[in-house]
Amino acid sequence: MELKEKITVEEVNGKAFKIRMVEASEHGNAALTHYLLNHKNDVASFYKEEALNHLRRALEYKFPEDNITSKAAEEALQYMIFDFQKEIPFPAPTKPKFKFIDLFAGIGGFRLAMQNLGGKCVYTSEWDEQAKKTYQANFGEVPFGDITKEETKRFIPDNFDVLCAGFPCQAFSIAGRRGGFEDTRGTLFFDVAEIIKRKQPKAIFLENVKGLRNHDKGKTLKTILNVLREDLGYYVPEPQILNAKDFGVPQNRERIFIVGFRSDLGIDEFEYPEPTNQTVAFEDVKEEETVSVKYYLSDTYLNTLVKHKQRHESKGNGFGYEIIPDDGIANAVVCGGMGRERNLVYDDRLEDFTPVTHIKGEVNRQGIRKMTPREWARLQGFPDNFLIPVSDASAYKQFGNSVAVPAIQATAKEIIKRLLKHA
């Protein structure tokens, strides 16, 4: 068969092929986009076979009367390579200094930071479908899925330099045991550790919630460090808690960072980055134009929040909504309603108070509104050309789950500095 017309990535990833593609291969779209972004380097071989199989199935669906040959699939792949880079808002550097993989990738906070430093992402994994949409829209790549599955791990290439992972925090069963590799089975950290063991990256960069330090009375962190240092043989300095507000974004967000280097590199010291001492406030990220009335609270909802806070204050608790002044620092943006309710703002620019959504009561006249998804993006250090292709509800969840890009980048800069010095 001669290819009658171009077939695009959008067609292959589109709804018309979805049922057939899912039945045929869970990893087809991911392998295809990973190949397109890595066709010039040595990891392409990990993706090409599945990419061609996926394309061939798509062509058979589009041209059911034709005999689809391997040559036709190859031809379609070449068409895509030619056009693909033009469509990506955040392309990888053309002459990368190092390679990294992005596990529990979310919407790409680690990736943005590492690309800004000259890194090339060669593998991505993320299970949430809505986060995958945002990731693909910005980086042109469909992440592979559930990293706990062996068929997902088998696509991870060899010889990358840095493993990045913002893995969820889980308790380990270590009663009466030494708290080593085997004790982490059944947790997501086990999958991270297993990949490190198999692939032996030069460096690892892990991020987690501040509470990991005291999780399960400190046993969880102790086990993680024991696995990395003793079982896997990495130099791991003491983890450090960094705050996003110290790195140029007006958000009080503390997270624990864990850094490690393969022992044969001879790296035996590491300094976490110092605060930038840059003065920041919410007004630095506030929307410049009047925002939609949909972000303004109704009188009924606002009254509910006021009463809720009063009840907790009467009991001596500090729970409840909070309004961030323009010259203030936002609380941590997190998933759930309280992530938004503890980050309300004053904005008196609204003139039309006609509701555009179904609300109880009228729109409040005090100018109290939620922050917008774009403001949350800025609080996490994402640039304004970062695309938000999902609903507001999904966007709040995604940015709430993300890493703060500037803090990640400042730490990664110290990692890469040592890797390049010991190359």
Automatic annotation (TrEMBL):
A biological process from GO: methylation
Record keyword S-adenosyl-L-methionine present: yes
GO function terms (MF aspect): DNA (cytosine-5-)-methyltransferase activity
Keyword tags: Methyltransferase, Restriction system, S-adenosyl-L-methionine, Transferase
Matching SUPFAM superfamilies: S-adenosyl-L-methionine-dependent methyltransferases (SSF53335)
Active-site feature positions: 169
EC number: 2.1.1.37
Reaction(s) the record says it catalyses: a 2'-deoxycytidine in DNA + S-adenosyl-L-methionine = a 5-methyl-2'-deoxycytidine in DNA + S-adenosyl-L-homocysteine + H(+)
Membership in a protein family: Belongs to the class I-like SAM-binding methyltransferase superfamily. C5-methyltransferase family.
NCBIfam families: dcm
Protein name in UniProt: Cytosine-specific methyltransferase
UniProt organism field: Flagellimonas lutaonensis
